[in-house]
Amino acid sequence: MPELRLVTATVAGSASMVSARGLGKAYPGRKGGAPFVAVDGVDFDVAAGESFGFLGPNGAGKSSTMRMIGCVSPPTAGSLTVLGLDASSNGPRIRSRMGSVPQDDNLDSELTVRENLLIYGRYFRLPKMVVHERAEQLLDFARLADKADDRVHALSGGMRRRLTIARSLINQPEILLLDEPTTGLDPQARHLLWERLFQLKRDGVTLILTTHYMDEAEQLCDRLVIMDRGRVVAEGSPHVLIKEHATREVLELRFDPGTQLDSVDRLSVIGDRVEVLPDRLLCYTDDGEAALVAATQAGLRPMTSLVRRAGLEDVFLRLTGRSLIE
Amino acid sequence: MTIRTESRAVDAFAYWLLRYRRVWRGTIVISVANPVLFLTAMGAGLGTLVDHHDSAYLHGHSYLAFLAPGLLAAAMMQTAYLESAGPVHTSARPGGNYRAALATPLTPADLLSGHLAFVAFRVATSGLAFAIVASAFGAVPPQRVPGVWLAAVLTGLAFAAPVAAWAVGVQRQSVLTAGFRFVLMPMYMFAGTFFSAEQLPTWLHAIVVCTPLYQGVELSRTLGLGTADLLGTVGHAAYLGSLIALGIIWGRRRYAAELTA
Prior knowledge:
The complex is a heterodimer of chains A (about 325) and B (about 260).
Chain A: E1 18-27, E2 36-46, E3 51-55, H1 62-69, E4 77-82, E5 85-86, H2 91-95, E6 98-101, H3 113-123, H4 128-141, H5 157-168, E7 175-179, H6 187-202, E8 206-211, H7 214-220, E9 223-228, E10 231-236, H8 238-245, E11 249-254, H9 264-268, E12 273-276, E13 280-285, H10 288-297, E14 304-309, H11 312-320
Parallel strand pairs in A: 3-8, 3-9, 6-7, 7-8
Antiparallel strand pairs in A: 1-2, 1-4, 4-5, 9-10, 11-13, 11-14, 12-13
Helix pairs in contact in A: 3-4, 3-5, 8-11
Chain B: H1 9-20, H2 24-53, H3 63-92, H4 97-101, H5 108-136, H6 145-167, H7 173-190, H8 202-208, H9 212-225, H10 230-259
């Protein structure tokens, strides 16, 4: 069987695969109310072959941005160019070169696993022989060859997700959009999916994904933007963002809820910065172990303590004053 | 402005055909069994009683010959509703097949056209089965079967297009059920399917003649009984054709608004 080949063409005459300037999306208000602004004038560029992420909590505007990039929801402000084409007027042409993995599973449970791939190939007007060949390759890629003739409703959550990704690759897309690709999956299924996505990235497919899992963003993204309330609050590689907005390590001290405030003053002189959460204090420092010793010497008696590496969650907390998972 | 690309409605139609491949045998059985049961019970059974009393409203025709073309039009109304209301609603919800197809080069207009083409296919095939059964019962002379069949297909599509346009934005399945119970069923009972609408009180008759089912029943019945005149036939066909055209125009707007918000 021929090896699965994923096209990695770059866009002639265009520096970026996706370019947004002042991009906005407002939905009409209900019963004549004020419009709801989901995306509020964001700028970003995605280069060919890059793995680019939108990180933010629920309601940050990530999915609305993805729908606009996917040309299924027109922007209401600003400009958006995808594959060198204006997204407002070239939807079908852009979508013919793009793959999309939506947040909501929209596999067809009336059809078999293989039929889900075949009908998608038909939508892209691929020759019948090509579609059948690619379907077999993608079933192998998604490790679903033995389930090919099963109905979709018999698949587990992880299998359905892999099938959705396989389906999105039937047209050998230049850009793959992944909206919360691993939400709701168990750790094993997540890691298998990550491995498949790494393979796509190695093959040069431009990945654009949204997530509210910081470990996923750190694993998969070369570069990302952090979104909050429809705006971009920071942009960069995970490493640079952590370096710029957090310390090397974090000391977490857990207290009885409500009692943690008594220790804030004493912890503040130990670390660079202290964040107060409902049941914890986070002390940002470059040496977590030393900070823990100092905190003990200062008479702090937490229920539990933990020293960990700073991550994107800490960056988000610093930039917005809120946790990613709320 | 969206740059026009070639229509891919045929690909959307192919999707519905692929799904239909699983159930086509069952639908053929139903398409034949239903008219056999109805025409046996209502046409031959009840018809014997009606014919015995020689109603003036039948204008000398047998009740079976009077009933069959109208019943065919009404059956196609129901088939069109069942194929366009629920399936459109489900397809347009999050996780529905419309949502999946919109991530490909297909447009909302393609989805509407492809779905309506499938409803036309279903109405045409089940209508043909009904017309052949009616002819076998002696209710419709064989030479009039094509005209009756075309009238029934036109009736079905006159419902399918506006219903699809409406259903794409309906939020709850129960609204579709209410539409069937409180709009379609009264029309089914009173729009002249089982008895002549001339028997109705004047005010009700005036309402009934405005309904699409009455127009479909009249078109089908006059063609089946051989009493059609040019003006009446053109009038009924124009009414139903206008409803199809308006349904498609409304549907294209509604599909675009609901599916690409």
